[in-house]
Amino acid sequence: MDGITGVQPVFDEDLLHKLDKSARQYCKFKGNVFPGSQPVSMDTENIKFIQTRPYRVSWKADGTRDNNFFKVHNLRFVQRDDLDKHIVNTLLDGEMVIDKHQGMSYPRYLVYDIVRINDVDVSTHAFYPHRLQYIENEIIKPRHSAIMGGKIDKSKEPFSIRAKIFYPVEKAKSFLSEKFSNQLGHEPDGLIFQPSEDPYKAGQCIEVLKWKPPSHNSVDFRLKIALETGEGILRRKVGQLFVGGYDPPFATMRCTRDIKELDNKIIECRLENDNWVFMRERTDKSFPNRVETAWSVYNSIKNPITKEFLLDFIERYRYRSDDDMMPPPPRPSNRR
């Protein structure tokens, strides 16, 4: 939320506890980490899910799953049946992006899932079409009606609200085109594959898949600069790489000039010839990836899914319903 005016972090401890408790209850999540649904990296094993069940696909934006709470000024979500009333007890899942257009920046919140609306649990309903329809009918359309009726002034909102569009899985190719990337406004970071018929699942969800080009696969670590000593070993500094939920170092790396001043910082690394290589400091993150995410990314790096393999797999092996596999009806005869 850095750089977005009209957005303030919530510091009140009682309110933070109440909000956090509500979010976890709505998600039916009992863990201590971020309760939202988190995808796993696609690999040569889990890609087979696309063969056994229907999926929807959309582009993946670069970013982090965040459990901070903010007060947003001048942003309203109105009820469908009464545009003068605000919705209550609602939990949306989405991502904040900054779109660039003609040198200007436009923050937008893209809603891609919904857990609860007006105190009604919809998390058990199918992602497609039901939860996507709730986003459109209960969030987007009422806001549009209120804007057109002068009840919401978009110019005063810190950011806009949009529904993220998901298409049938066979449309994945269109999201990887240069034309789509140029039109998007922000940098795409791969693809998200969401099972159509599944309920919302909190925490890591092995059925929700994220795909990145092999060159983009990386892990965010917490770096600790340590002195390596031992019998027969020259004293030297090394970079120890830590992940969440795992006490020992996940890996180590050479203490190069690039990282020697980044002790205790979050850094993004890629795997190159079985060695972790520094890419950049993640100033936008306060915590490293969880150990489950790190292993998932590691496996996808060791067993990469190329763009060509992915698109060929979808074309050949994607799930098809009985209706899809039925032969086309015969053409009408011109004979009378």
UniProtKB/TrEMBL annotation:
Catalysis: reaction(s): a 5'-end diphospho-ribonucleoside in mRNA + GTP + H(+) = a 5'-end (5'-triphosphoguanosine)-ribonucleoside in mRNA + diphosphate
Keyword Cell division on entry: no
Listed name of the protein: mRNA guanylyltransferase
Boundaries of every mRNA capping enzyme C-terminal domain copy: 217-311
One biological process term in Gene Ontology: 7-methylguanosine mRNA capping
Gene Ontology CC terms: nucleus
Localization per Swiss-Prot or TrEMBL: Nucleus
Source superkingdom: Eukaryota
Domain mRNA capping enzyme adenylation, chain residue ranges per copy: 38-212
Major location (coarse): nucleus
Catalytic EC class: transferase
Keywords from the UniProt entry: GTP-binding, mRNA capping, mRNA processing, Nucleotide-binding, Nucleotidyltransferase, Nucleus, Transferase
Protein EC: 2.7.7.50
Database matches in Pfam families: mRNA_cap_C, mRNA_cap_enzyme
GO molecular function: GTP binding; mRNA guanylyltransferase activity
